[in-house]
Design goal:
By secondary structure, the protein is of the alpha+beta class. Helices cover 21% and strands 25% of the residues. The protein has a six-stranded antiparallel β-sheet with strand order 3-2-5-6-8-9, covered by helices on one side. Strands 4-1-10-7 form a four-stranded antiparallel β-sheet, with no helix packed on it. Strand 5 and strand 6 form a beta hairpin. The longest helix is centred in the N-terminal third of the chain and has 24 residues. The relative contact order is 0.22.
Length: 244
């Protein structure tokens, strides 16, 4: 009797092992990501998104920003992050969202750009997380995004998160157009005639950590009623759907 039970258990164990790869093979490996600007006055740069195995972190509140995240948050420069993620063995796929910046409805930039973008991203077996980051264009070093969002498993399933505005803690919030990337003025329509900059100014380096953004305070050129947002509300929405 003991031998029979033991044999039955062994057969069941082998069956479970052989079935596991088949079940895992049915997991979705292609995903559609929709990224939407929810603000009334903050355009967003094209997002950087990656699928990965969970060890990779784009950001964590309370920790210093990496150089790659600093470049996104200060300058809208995705290149360093794309390079870093592309060389990371824990990363399955990296995508820069197409279509240019996302802009608030009714802003001057709305004539050329939309409030939402949708793109596809792959995730090989074992890469079950998605991370994404984009700059809040009319800030010194603001950004939004998500870190290690669990991907849906079954075809047709989706997950939606709404994301906060964050301060990278890398540049002082002067709110001066001279220190902010040039597209801000044209996309929103408030201008001082200053050219703006896409390069970091060492004199403004802050040396802080990532925190929830305090919003636009009206210290210089930025106007709270135009560029600001409710800091208790999300600035963007991310929806991920398993498609293949």
């Amino acid at each position: 009797m003991k031998r029979t039970v033991g044999l039955a258990a062994a057969v069941a164990a082998v069956a479970a092992l052989t079935a596991a790869p088949a079940a895992d093979a049915k997991r979705a490996e292609t995903f559609e990501v929709t990224f939407t600007d929810l603000t009334s006055g903050q355009p967003l740069t094209p997002a950087v998104a990656a699928t990965h195995r969970g060890k990779n972190e784009l950001f964590r509140v309370g920790r210093p920003a990496t150089f790659e995240l600093k470049e996104i948050a200060e300058n809208g420069n995705n290149a360093p992050m794309l390079t870093r993620l592309g060389s990371d063995d824990d990363v399955s796929d990296v995508v820069e969202a197409p279509g240019g910046p996302l802009v608030p409805a009714g802003s001057p930039g709305d004539a050329m750009f939309g409030q939402s973008t949708t793109f596809s991203i792959e995730a090989e077996r074992g890469a079950r997380f998605l991370s994404l980051a984009a700059m809040l264009i009319c800030t010194n070093d603001g950004f939004t995004g998500v870190n290690a969002l669990k991907l849906p498993s079954k075809l047709g399933d989706s997950v939606t998160v709404e994301t906060a505005g964050y301060d990278a803690g890398t540049e002082l919030n002067t709110e001066d157009f001279a220190d902010i990337v040039p597209p801000c003025q044209g996309l929103i329509g408030v201008s001082s005639g200053e050219p703006g900059t896409g390069s970091s100014n060492p004199a403004l380096a802050e040396g802080g950590v990532i925190a929830h953004h305090a919003g636009i305070l009206g210290g210089a050129d930025l106007v709270p009623a135009i560029h600001g947002w409710d800091t208790d509300a999300p600035v963007a929405r991310i929806t991920v759907t398993a498609t293949g």
